[in-house]
Each structure stands twice: as structure tokens, then as C-alpha cells.
Amino acid sequence: MAIVVNPISPVAFSVFGLDVRWYALAYIAAFVVGYFMLRAFVRSRDSQITLNKKQLDDLLTAIILGVIIGGRLGYVLFYNLAFFLAHPLEIFAVWHGGMSFHGGLIGVILATLLFARNLVKHNQTIGNTYNTTFRILDILAVIAPVGLFFGRIANFINMEVMGRPADVPWAVVFAGQTNVPRHPSPLYEAATEGILLFVIMYCLYRFTGLRRRPGALGGMLAMLYAVFRIFCEQFRAPDAQIGFLFNTNWLTMGQMLSAIMFVVGAIIFVAAFRKNNK
What we know:
Layout: E1 3-5, E2 11-15, E3 18-21, H1 22-43, H2 53-79, H3 81-86, H4 101-122, H5 129-157, E4 172-174, H6 185-207, H7 216-232, H8 253-277
Parallel strand pairs: 1-4
Antiparallel strand pairs: 2-3
């Protein structure tokens, strides 16, 4: 028998007539928690890079812009390009939903690269742009699963990216929405891409020497996330506007992007060892 869940309003509360949505709160929580974690990491004895408060604030600003702009453009390009070409102003209507993790990741990488380039330009003792970029990304790789966790919980509250029909005991039915029991796939992703991935990444950072090889942790995150995402996509309904890719009944856009991400992560991981062995 399925678990019946009463739908939760996507609006958490209102202030002076302005609706504050759970999705927005998830992003705020991710950025706030992520900032304090980032500060703790760069101030620890194990840190491979040191940033002062202003630099941390500048980096956070760059990350926020990278996540939002990259995530939105990624959704536009990867998931619903035809619609946005017909309705270009909807690109800016982020409150209607539609963000891509893979796009957000690209945005964060580019934002970090620009930040590192500027940092090296004004501080010649910090190292080259390549090493600085990857040392920062390696720390962000440990923190990123926290943001993923909050985002997936918000997906569940909003009844977004829900799972395929299921007959398992923990299948979920949202009262008044559908009578079809479905996998609570956002919770699967919160558990794997969020909690489990954070535990693994933190242990790799804390108990191995990967943090001393710029790019190694970032490459590892890409590979592990790809594996978890590909696995969870087996239980998640494909996007209605896309369906399955290439006339298959199994390959989703999320799986294809994650497979590419795995390959890129593996290349970065191997390059981190080769560069440090020269």
C-alpha cells in the first residue's frame, strides 16, 4: 500500500504580499551553509588555499551567479529549448521552476575560473590560475552535496521530478493530485547525491591525500555524482517535454548528461595525478 502525502504548498510564507517559496529557501539555506563550510575549510590546517573574508565574499557572489545563471541556461538549452525560443521572456521567470544541475555546475566552474584568474592577477604568490581554480573547486566538491540535498527536498515539496509508477511499500501518492503510486525519486536523490555523496567526499578530503592533487576531488565528485544520478534516473520519470532519448525506453537526458560528466570527471582525475607526478 502506498504512502499518502498531503501536498505542501510551494509557498513557505508571505511577507508584505511577496510569496517566499520553499525552493528559494532551499537555495538560501544551501548558500548560507555552504559559505560557513567554505570558510571553515579554507581556514583549516589542511587547506591548500587561503582566502581572506573579502575574497570569500567575492567567491560566494561568483558561485551564486554561476549556479543561478548556469542552472537556468542549462535548463533552457538541455531540457526545453523549443519552448523558450517561442517564449524568450520566460527564461527570466525562474520562479516558474526549471534549473539544471549540470548547467549550474558549468556555471560554477566558469565563475571559479574567472575568480581564480583575478585572484592570481592581484596575488602572484598564490600560484597559477590552473592550480588555484582546481584547489577551490576541490573544496566546493566537498560542499556541493549539501546544496544538492536541500534542492532535492525542495523538489519533493514542490512535487517536481517525481518518480515512475511503483508498487513498492514506500511509493508515494500526493492526495488530490494523482492516484498513481510513484517512487519518491527526489528523496532517493537527496539520500544519494546529498547525504551519501557528502560523506564520501568529506572522507576523501579528510582521510586521503587527494586534496593535495588539484582537480582530484573535483573529478571524483563528477564521477560519483554521475553514478548516483544515472542510478536514480531509473526511478525518476523522464521530463514530459523530452521523454526518453533516441527512441529508447530507458535513456533520459539526465543520464546522458551524467555519462558525459563521468567521462570529463575521469579525465580531470587522471590529469590531476599525471600533472603532480611530473
